[in-house]
């Protein structure tokens, strides 16, 4: 699905956020955050990794009513792609090979599932492509809740469920994990460095669903309701493509969660 970026700071009737005017005292008005400044890459494309073995097993656990995933061959960061994920990575490679204006810088999360997906793109692009890893685009760390189904979390950690409901999408931090707001901090750092290092270049990042969601939050200056709606609207698909392009003053969203290449 392609999607164009719409400025949320206007005054239309579709959820616009406007500063309070005369007589607005005491009324809460939501104003978007500042979009990420100075990230003047020509194009920033972000792909979620292909389906991992843990993704596959978690889907099966939900269907079978099993509380958590077991039997993985390694820690979460080192879990490989599933057979389906390998096919999706190959499709990413074919997609990369067919780009009219390919990236010359590829950055991947250090998690194995992201590295394997990125490598398929790098191999397809051929020589001259710079390939780097950056742990700031790793997946969200969810601590004690890792690889648990939602039903299992509600059964085992009812106090955490209550705390999540009270704290909210951006600020809830599970024990041993990080909040989405924590992610935003490291992604702002990543984008700042990217703007310094890759000004004017076409960049491909291969990362995770939470990274795609929170990059939208940071780049577009969204508010909590916006980003929570994005996260809940069907999820970020494995091997999907999201893209922002530089328009002379800012990065604008031109493609979101697209899987036409699969």
From TrEMBL:
Q: Which family does the similarity line name?
A: Belongs to the phosphoglycerate mutase family. BPG-dependent PGAM subfamily.
EC number(s) on record? 5.4.2.11
Q: Which residues bind substrate?
A: 48-55, 113
Region described as Disordered: 1-26
Against SMART domains, the record matches this protein to: PGAM
Q: What is this protein called?
A: phosphoglycerate mutase (2,3-diphosphoglycerate-dependent)
Judging by the UniProt lineage, the source's domain of life is Bacteria
Q: Which GO terms describe its biological process?
A: glycolytic process
Record keywords: Glycolysis, Isomerase
EC top class named in words = isomerase
Q: Does the keyword tRNA processing apply?
A: no
Residue stretches spanning the membrane: none
What the entry lists under InterPro entries is as follows: His_Pase_superF_clade-1 (IPR013078), His_PPase_superfam (IPR029033), PG/BPGM_mutase_AS (IPR001345), Phosphogly_mut1 (IPR005952)
The GO terms this record gives for MF are: phosphoglycerate mutase activity
């Amino acid at each position: 699905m392609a999607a164009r970026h719409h400025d949320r700071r206007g005054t239309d009737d579709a959820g616009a956020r406007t500063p309070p005017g005369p007589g607005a005292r005491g009324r809460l008005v939501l104003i978007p955050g500042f979009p990420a400044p100075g990230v003047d890459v020509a194009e920033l494309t972000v792909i979620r990794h292909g389906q991992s073995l843990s993704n596959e097993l978690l889907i099966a656990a939900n269907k079978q009513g099993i509380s958590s995933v077991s039997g993985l061959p390694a820690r979460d960061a080192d879990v490989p792609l599933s057979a389906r994920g390998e096919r999706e990575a190959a499709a990413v490679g074919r997609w990369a090979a067919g780009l009219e204006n390919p990236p010359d810088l590829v950055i991947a999360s250090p998690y194995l599932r992201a590295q394997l997906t990125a490598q398929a793109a790098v191999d397809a692009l051929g020589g001259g492509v710079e390939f780097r890893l950056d742990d700031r685009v790793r997946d969200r760390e969810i601590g004690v809740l890792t690889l648990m189904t939602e039903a299992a979390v509600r059964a085992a950690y009812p106090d955490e469920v209550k705390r999540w409901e009270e704290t909210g999408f951006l600020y809830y931090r599970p024990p041993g994990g990080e909040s989405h707001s924590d992610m935003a901090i490291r992604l702002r750092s990543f984008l700042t460095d990217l703007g310094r290092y890759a000004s004017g270049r076409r960049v491909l990042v291969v990362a995770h669903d939470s990274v795609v969601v929170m990059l939208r939050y940071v780049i577009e200056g969204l508010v909590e309701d916006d980003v929570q709606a994005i996260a809940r609207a069907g999820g970020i698909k494995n091997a999907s493509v999201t893209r922002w392009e530089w328009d002379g003053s800012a990065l604008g969203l031109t493609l979101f969660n697209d899987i036409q290449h699969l």
